[in-house]
Amino acid sequence: MTELRPATTADLEAVLALHGAFFAEDGYELREAESRANLGRLLDDPDLGRLWVMDDGGTVVGYLLLAFGFSLEFRGRDAFVDELYVTPDHRGRGLGKRAIELAAEACRGLGVRALHLEVERDKERAQEIYRRAGFVDHGRYLMTKWIE
Question: What are the catalytic residues?
Fold first, then answer.
């Protein structure tokens, strides 16, 4: 059975490779050096968030990155499932569901009041998984302005 466990610095390169696969799959621009540095920061500073890996016999086959924030609207400390990725050959085994449950349980213990995520509009299977896990679409758009 695939183990979900906290990531360590030894997992950084494996997670970075999966992050690259995730970005390629969805057509996002990968900035590998920036991602490597940010994964390192996250692993070094638990105040930023948490990173779990899905370990199948010593091979990392997925990960979930949880980032922390704070919101008056969402009643205090909140968190965002920034990335959830499972390799195609390990999909359909409940790993994403287990990872979301693990993240929600960790949030309860950390005083997080609301857990958010975003999902592509065309990924209906993923949307259904998230709805069954209790996530609700607020009918809003996630809008981003890059500060560079």
Answer: 130
